[in-house]
Specification:
Blueprint: H1 8-27, H2 31-38, H3 41-56, H4 70-81, H5 93-103, H6 130-141, H7 143-154, H8 159-170, H9 173-179, H10 184-204, H11 208-226, H12 233-242
C-alpha cells in the first residue's frame, strides 16, 4: 500500500494545501497592511457602495423590453394614476411608490394603455418610463450590502467578516438582477434590513430617549415592509426575538 499512488482527490487536496502555504508565505510581509485595510470600516463602506453601483446601474435600459413581472407593476402604476379601481393580493405600498415615481416624469399617463394579460412575455418599453424606475431601484439596491455590513457589525461581527458577508450579497447574481428591475423585492429587503439595524441600535444604546426613537423608527419601517408584502411578518418576528 505504501508504494501505491495516492488517489486523485488526495493529490488535489495536497496541491491546494501546497498552493495555500505558498500564498500565505507570499503575503506574509504584507500582513500588517492587509490587517489595516480589512479592518477599515470606511474603506469597506466606500468599496461596497462603488462596486454595488457599478454592478447595478450601468446599461440599466438593457434589455429594452420588460422582464419578469415588470408589465404587471407598470399596469398598476398606470391604473393608479388614471384613478381606476384595482385589486391585488399584496399590500399596495410598492405599487403606490412606482406610481409616484411615474408622476414625477413628463409621461402623459392618461394616454397610456395597460397590458391586460400578465403573460410574462417581454413587451417593448413604449412610453412607460421603465428605465427611470429601474435606475431608482438600482440605486436603492446599492444600499442592501451596506445594510448587511451594518447589521453584522451591530451583531458584534468583526469588520473583515462583516465585509465578507456584505460582499457576498453585493455580487449575488439574483440580487443584482432584482435590483435592476421594477420589482418590489429589493425595496422590501432594504426596508427590512434597515428596520433590523435600527432595532439593534435601539437595544444597544443607553439613553432612554434614543432607545425609544430608534425603536419607534424600527416599528415604522416594519410597517412599511408589511405594507409591501405579507412575508415581512417574518422580519417582525425576528425583531421581536431581539427584544
Amino acid at each position: 500500500l505504501h508504494h501505491m499512488q495516492p488517489r486523485l482527490p488526495v493529490r488535489i487536496a495536497n496541491t491546494i494545501m501546497r498552493w495555500g502555504k505558498n500564498f500565505l508565505a507570499a503575503v506574509d510581509p504584507f500582513r500588517p497592511t492587509l490587517h489595516r485595510v480589512l479592518h477599515n470600516e470606511r474603506l469597506w463602506i466606500l468599496t461596497l457602495l462603488i462596486i454595488g453601483a457599478l454592478l447595478r446601474v450601468p446599461f440599466i435600459d438593457h434589455p429594452q423590453e420588460t422582464v419578469f413581472d415588470e408589465p404587471i407593476y407598470a399596469d398598476f402604476a398606470i391604473l393608479i394614476l388614471q384613478e381606476h379601481p384595482i385589486f391585488d393580493i399584496h399590500p399596495p405600498l410598492a405599487r403606490m411608490f412606482f406610481a409616484t415615481l411615474v408622476s414625477y416624469t413628463d409621461v402623459h399617463t392618461a394616454s397610456l394603455s395597460i397590458i391586460t394579460t400578465p403573460d410574462f412575455v417581454p413587451h417593448d418599453f413604449q412610453e412607460f418610463p421603465y428605465a427611470f424606475l429601474r435606475i431608482v431601484m438600482a440605486y436603492i439596491g446599492t444600499l442592501l450590502p451596506l445594510l448587511i455590513f451594518g447589521v453584522a457589525r451591530r451583531l458584534r461581527v468583526s469588520t473583515p467578516w462583516a465585509g465578507l458577508a456584505a460582499f457576498l450579497v453585493l455580487i449575488d447574481p439574483a440580487l443584482i438582477v432584482y435590483a435592476r428591475a421594477i420589482l418590489p423585492d429589493t425595496l422590501l429587503l432594504v426596508i427590512e434590513f434597515l428596520a433590523i439595524y435600527m432595532a439593534l441600535w435601539a437595544l444597544q444604546t443607553e439613553r432612554p430617549l434614543n432607545r425609544f426613537l430608534l425603536g419607534f423608527l424600527a416599528a415604522i419601517l416594519l410597517g412599511f415592509a408589511l405594507s409591501i408584502k405579507w412575508i415581512a411578518l417574518s422580519i417582525a418576528g425576528i425583531v421581536g426575538l431581539f427584544y
